[in-house]
Write a structure and sequence with these properties.
There is one protein chain. The chain is α/β, with parallel strands linked by helices. The protein has 8 helices and 14 strands. The strands form 3 sheets. A 10-stranded mixed beta sheet has the order 1-5-6-8-7-9-10-13-14-3, sandwiched between helices. Helix 2 packs across helix 3 (174-185). The longest helix is centred in the last third of the chain and has 19 residues, at 293-311.
């Protein structure tokens, strides 16, 4: 499918309060929907609608369906390509646990309207009803998702609209953890890294659930059975020392997290801001696990400003 989408408006906040690395000071904004809402699974982030805020950029864009191969399995995605000739900076958006490519659509609409190409895709083995990639939840783990991100970014380098020297990874929740792990091992592949309420707690959560790898069953339920995963979900990341490893990424990092997040505590992002050598942390007041309404508008303001800064 290839169609032209009319761009909605954006109004960025006039002033952005910058929080330095390691600071927990927040910015005032309206409350957001938390992931513990009954319409969401316990691990899912609240997904913003671009209609929640007034958005305006100068670019129109088109959407392109793209497929990427990873070891014989197919990864589905949608690229948002701004108008105009030439190659453009690319944002690769990684969704959270139980979501799909549509979780990145509101961000893609805003960023594409500002001239940034965006690709949002379905991780293999996720469970959301719109997920079109191959795989099952019992074969999925954070590390298989790192492999998916590797495959997508490698393929994107050859897309005709992409400036391969200006690829930025953006990830939410588990997709934020995946993006952080990818960046640590592929620093030369990225121009930037943006983490939205990243689930850097995954290792701690697994260790709290099981005494050893040997205790992990072949399949088990996450969040009381909300999603069934396989043994590799725990085994693949059991020995990964998250905060000792992710700081290997030397580039500029933007981290956004809500102070009302009941799924991943904001302290994980505060700790991440201490291990990255070049990091901006913004704690969004009243935001839960996901940004909607005014919180989404505030987050988009930070992201656009960050991406513009990478181009200067």
């Amino acid at each position: 499918m290839k169609g032209t989408t009319a761009v909605m408006a954006i109004v960025l906040a006039a002033a952005f309060g910058l929080v330095g690395c390691g600071s927990a000071q927040g910015q005032a904004s309206s409350a957001s929907t938390d992931a513990s809402a009954s319409s969401l699974g316990p691990g899912q982030a609240a997904v913003a609608s671009s209609g929640d805020v007034d958005q305006k950029g100068d670019f129109t864009y088109e959407q392109r369906e793209l497929w990427v191969d990873n070891g014989g399995e197919q990864i589905y995605g949608v690229a948002y390509v701004p108008e105009g000739e030439g190659q453009k900076p690319l944002v690769v958006f990684s969704h959270g646990l139980g979501n799909d490519h549509s979780a990145g659509a509101p961000y893609a609409e805003v960023l594409a309207s500002h001239g940034f190409a965006v690709h949002t895709f379905d991780f293999r083995g996720e469970s959301a009803h719109q997920n079109r990639s191959d795989g099952s939840s019992t074969s999925m783990s954070a590390m298989t998702e790192v492999s998916d991100l590797e495959a997508v970014i490698e393929a994107a380098k050859d897309w005709d609209f992409v400036d391969s020297s200006a690829i930025v990874a953006v990830g939410e929740s588990q997709g934020g953890c995946v993006s952080a792990v990818y960046a640590a091992d592929h620093a030369d592949e990225l121009a930037g890294l943006v983490l939205l309420y990243p689930a850097l707690s995954i290792s701690d959560d697994i260790h709290a659930q099981f005494a050893s790898v040997a205790d992990v069953p072949d399949t088990y339920g996450l969040f009381g059975g909300w999603m069934t995963v396989g043994r590799n979900y725990a085994a693949d990341i059991w020995d990964y020392d998250m905060f000792a490893r992710i700081g290997a990424y030397p580039g500029k990092v933007l981290v956004l997290h809500g102070d009302a997040d009941s799924v991943v505590d904001v302290s994980y992002s505060e700790r991440a801001s201490q291990v990255y050598p070049d990091c901006e942390l913004h704690v969004i007041s009243g935001a839960g696990h996901g940004f909607t309404g005014g919180n989404f508008e505030e987050a988009c303001g930070y992201i656009v400003a960050y991406l513009d800064g990478l181009q200067s």
